[in-house]
Amino acid sequence: MERHGFGLKQEVTPILDRNYRSELIEKIKENRYELEIGRVRFRLAKEFGFCPGVDRAVDFAYETRAKFPEKSIFITNEIIHNPTVNRKLIEMGIRFLKGPYKGEAGIEEIRKEDVVLLPAFGTTVEELKQLNQKGCLLVDTTCGSVIAVWKRVEQYAKDGFTAVIHGKYDHEETRATCSRAGRYVVIWDKKEAELLCGHILRKNSREDFFRVFGNRVSGGFDPDRDLLRVGCANQTTMLSRESIEITNRIRNAMIEKYGEKNLEDHFRHFDTICSSTQDRQDAIQKLLSEERPDFVVVIGGYNSSNTTHLLEICQSENVKAYHVKDAGCFRSKDEIEHKPLDSRNSVIARNWLPCGRLTVGITAGASTPNRLIEEIILKISQIANGA
């Protein structure tokens, strides 16, 4: 398995710059993260866009194609949750084995002479075993922060602890983590954490437990047995403050049941929120505290967990915000396509652009290239200034 690239960074850098870099964004950073065009003043959060793990994954994909120009190259699923980046891979002839960009081939069609990329989210133990049996070359772009979570839940399993994972059960990263966790239960929010604590304290029935968590637990899960010793972990892109609150609630339930002096025998925790995710959450919080913009544009794939949490922070501060995937979402001065926080699909909103001078906050998820941010800034400016 290849995890260190092919030494072709210099060769692929011009292509990456052409596709993803933005001179405008660099100039905005140099100007204290502000830009004024006509009647619009843009303010960028001081942490946004591609994180180191995403940079590495995209670099590896481009290096792999440069190294093997004639070989069939596949990727198990989306490399990151950004449609622009995934479409670029398709243009390079890289075929997807699963997910929204899936082609005709599946893992069963992979041959020994093929190359398969593992995405930044990683892959399950079962899928990795299938690919290893094929004998093909695997190029692993899994983010180091994700691997750190895997090591944590694997240690929990060795020590006889059940992993309580705060995350989206159907997210690729969470599925990969579950496959390494031994016994596990996945919880989505504080409400579900409260239900879990109710069972730890034997206040809820088994029927109640399985009604909520039945499809989000390991095989043969017995809540009366498997919640006696638990270790908390997170999908790396969750909302940090919520994960902290969930962890503290479970910790307090264990103290209530076993006493604080026995806590170490029944409860473990290690912060597995990605530092880049945390930085972006802190940055948008700081931007909103410094000056209230007329609205915020949150840029990223609609299935991007870390992007969604940036939107959630804006809404928690009662600031109007629009989650958009690209510049095409800005249809006119009257219409914008965006994805509301609690919706599975995008919607069309009207009258999104205020009259007069305005301040627009800008942030972007960790899978969003700077070039895309530039295109959106220019599109808003064009519409607002009637160009």
Question: What does this molecule look like?
Answer:
The protein has 387 residues and is α/β, with parallel strands linked by helices. The protein has three domains: 22-51 and 276-384, 4-hydroxy-3-methylbut-2-enyl diphosphate reductase, catalytic domain (Cobalt-precorrin-4 Transmethylase, domain 1); 52-143, 3-Layer(aba) Sandwich (Rossmann fold), CATH 3.40.50; 145-269, Cobalt-precorrin-4 Transmethylase, domain 1, CATH 3.40.1010. The protein is built from 14 helices and 15 strands. The strands form four sheets. Strands 1-2-15-11-12 form a five-stranded mixed beta sheet, sandwiched between helices. Strands 4-3-5-6 form a four-stranded parallel beta sheet. Strands 8-7-9-10 form a four-stranded parallel beta sheet, with helices on both faces. Strand 5 (115-118), helix 5 (125-134) and strand 6 (137-140) form a beta-alpha-beta unit. Helix 6 packs parallel to helix 7 (172-178) and helix 8 (190-200) packs parallel to helix 11 (240-258). It starts with 8 loop residues before the first helix and ends with a helix. The relative contact order is 0.14. The mean pLDDT is 94.
